[in-house]
Design brief:
single chain, 294 residues, alpha/beta, 7-stranded mixed sheet, 10 helices, elongated
Amino acid sequence: MGKSLAAIPCYNEAVTIGSVVLQTRKYVDEVLVIDDGSTDDTRAIAIEAGAKVITHAANRGKGGAVRTALKYAQDGAFDFIVLLDGDGQHDPREIPALVEPVQEGTADLVIGSRFLSSKNRIPKYRQLGQMVLTTMTNFNARHTTTDSQSGFRVLSRSAIERFTMESKDYNVESDMITSLSAQGISITEVPISVTYDVPNKHKKNPITHGFGVLRSIMGTMEYSNPFLTFGVIGIAALVVGIAFGVTALSAYVATATLPFWTSLLGGTFTLLGVLFLMAGITLRYVAMTVRRMA
């Protein structure tokens, strides 16, 4: 089976952390709780439940908590690490199913997907937001997932050692997929259940959270694949410019008068499209050169 660790990043989860730790201990050798600057009794309750606790003096965000967990796993020579949330959304009884592909050697990163199970009742607004974030992550990564934002996942020893991105917050899930897939790490998904009716479910506004993750994904795309980022914008601008241009030309043929604003918009969007495409090509060359020199 190998030496196993479950890590639970927490911020003010005193209500649920005790039961999550007690259930998780049944399936791994050690449970680590990263108390990310909590102001309640998260630390004391986690220790009482039998977890090892590392406390951040100030809140570093989920990315910082995950990095602390991965460093602990690496220093402790653990063969794999299970990451799950401390708010009760994830069911620790599903840990064996997530661990199985790693133990069998068929995957180094296993993601628990909420969208592979028909039993889950996911709010529509969450489905839409997750679809956008997963689509953008898939554009940026070399692997296609159905649930890029799932915090319930397992990393093998190889994946633990190779993930080095300095993710600051909830974008750590997308960054992990992007970084590890680029290094050829094998990734798979297994279906999981999810519970949204938990006591402390509104710690972060889902809209601002979603836009924050999306902004981070776009920033990564601009570096890792600038041609895709700027190329899509450039092509879209060209299409709009051509549409305005055709409209203006049709009006000129019909009336022998060139419509000023339609022509201006056509020319402007066409010029922007060409500039974005050129920027994408140039930045792609620069990024490739930097990576070769690194």
